[in-house]
Amino acid sequence: MQSKRAQAYDNWKVYSSEGKIMFRCNRKKISWYLSRNLANQIAHDSIQLNFQTKGLGHVDNTYYLEDKSNLCVCCGASENLTMHHVVPDMYRRHMPEIVKSHASYDVLLMCIRCHTSYEKTANELKKKIAIDFNMPLNGNGQGQIRLYNNIKIKKAASALNRKGIPEDRMRELKNIVFTWHQQTTDKTKNDKLNNIIEKALMLPDYERNGEFVEHGKYVVNQLLKDYHHLKRWPKLEGFIYLWRDHFLKTMKPKFLSQFWKVDNNIYIDR
Ligand SMILES: [Zn+2]
């Protein structure tokens, strides 16, 4: 969940060099165009690009062109607002760039109260997806592997720092750390026991498991599979529509634009 201050939308208008409104954006993006002399300011809230663009932005999609309110799309609250990602980030981050770049459509302004209440039902949908795809939410296998050998060496090293250890036990412990040290370092290096102990104590207890399968990544890969040659992914489209539809049915957002549609294009138009 990303926290944003109330002024998420500044509602600046960007016109094409032919004078057609192309899209709305915030002050930051406007400054970007102006500072590079790519546009001229033509009104207090509008700029006109002074170069010909390839496409006309969102000229056919009213949702992008209308004024956006700095209100929770569900209850109309104007405070404690946050950006809500309609498609959870655990899936979104694994999607192709041409889908991810289009993400602003699926980022809606919501108050924290509505956001929290929706998250509960969103979790139910995630559980259902986990069953449908036969992939648990916390992934398949263990994310990390415990390194028992490192732990054994560290225990020996830390015991060597203690006083009052019987001599034969001391010999065993030294043997453990010296063997490890000899196997892992340059043979010619003649480290003192204290240095070896210090190095041993820094050994990690865990390492990342390369075999681990993340839930979000697995689900998205399944949705993309078989369609890479098309650069259009029908199953992925369905998945995004599923989340949009779930959001609309659950929250019945009274302050969301009537032009926000479940089946709006998921790809960036370039
Ligand atoms: Zn709200």
Automatic annotation (TrEMBL):
Cite the entry's keywords alphabetically.
Answer: Exonuclease, Hydrolase, Nuclease
Q: Name one GO molecular function term.
A: exonuclease activity
User: What is the protein name for this chain?
Assistant: Exonuclease 3'-5' domain-containing protein 2-like
Identify the species of origin: Rhizophagus clarus
| Classification of source organism | Eukaryota, Fungi, Fungi incertae sedis, Mucoromycota, Glomeromycotina
